[in-house]
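User: Please look over both lines:
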Amino acid sequence: MKFLRNIIDKIKPAFERGGKFGFLHSTFEAFESFVFVPNTTSKSGVHIHDSNDLKRTMTIVIVALLPALLFGMWNIGYQRHLAFGEAMTGWEMFTFGFLKVLPIIVVSYAVGLGIEFAAAQIRKHEVNEGFLVTGMLIPLIMPVDCPLWMVGLATAFAVIIGKEVFGGTGMNIFNPALLARAFIFFAYPSHMSGGTVWVAGMKDAPAIDAVTGATPLAHAAAGEMDKLPSAYDMFFGFIPGSVGETSTLAILTGALILIYTGVASWKIMLSCVCGALATGFMLNIVGGNPYMSLSPFYHLLMGGFAFGTVFMATDPVTGAQTATGKWIYGFLTGTFTVLIRVFNQGYPEGMMLAILFMNAFAPLIDHYVVAANIRRRMKRGLRKAEQ
């Protein structure tokens, strides 16, 4: 690493402001800070200085995503094995899925980072590390058969319209990864219906290029409760679905990493689960159709609920900031997810819409929480003055 440090120090003056390649200062600084820890510190507006910068935070989130990513790759091969009965070892299943997912990841990062670097150069700002996580989240919430050009278009929409127009990382209102998914959902619904998932066909069976398998959400929306996978299969992830959303166990592993490191809010995760369970039990009491009578615990295992709860709803930029607000924000997210699934079956994956909806109301929730705290303090102050 010392050899690399010497090379960077040698060419650095050429990329400084006023240097021969000064117009590429933002790009050079981004690569340098990615390889080495910056030697700069905040000079104002900071109460506590420590070593936890945005790059370290993003790295922890990516590590937390790895269990879901690796299992998702294996599950792609496993679903192919189930669909065609082809003998495959565990390593062959993983390799097959790896080769299907890798191009999606490459396109996501290439398009997103390209736009981020271009925006930083135009504004003459530093390149923020926020897209390091977004670039991984987008492939994990996509069907594996999503065309690469569509992934690139959705990524560009999410970065430009969802983040850069608001001022970049930390200024966006909506979660960029979910905006990418919503873009494909509404622009190309046949590729993001939430009802079917693609299963690759065998190369030696040209008459059958691929088949589609119904997801648990599709069976539930159709009232086919007898066709739902077992809770065991849904918990461990042996079901069709988007790349990173099938295994609740893998997602919970990532949740433990985020909670242990303090990167994500356990309050939002817990309240989201409580909101979904409370709404599910209420619908069980009301009754009316098979979906309303479904066990509330199934809602936690189906679709993208677990993934959204752990990695999307807890986004510190687009979620609630106050302690009380996090409880309200998470509870309503879980509530709306179940309500959308049950009462608007045209959107079987209610988690995406619920989080985006609550992203819009998160500032309002925090506003009223702060206002209520101010009123309570003023009342306490008046009582003390009267005494």
In short: The chain has one domain: 54-373. DSSP finds 15 helices and two strands in the chain. The first helix runs from residue 2 to 15.
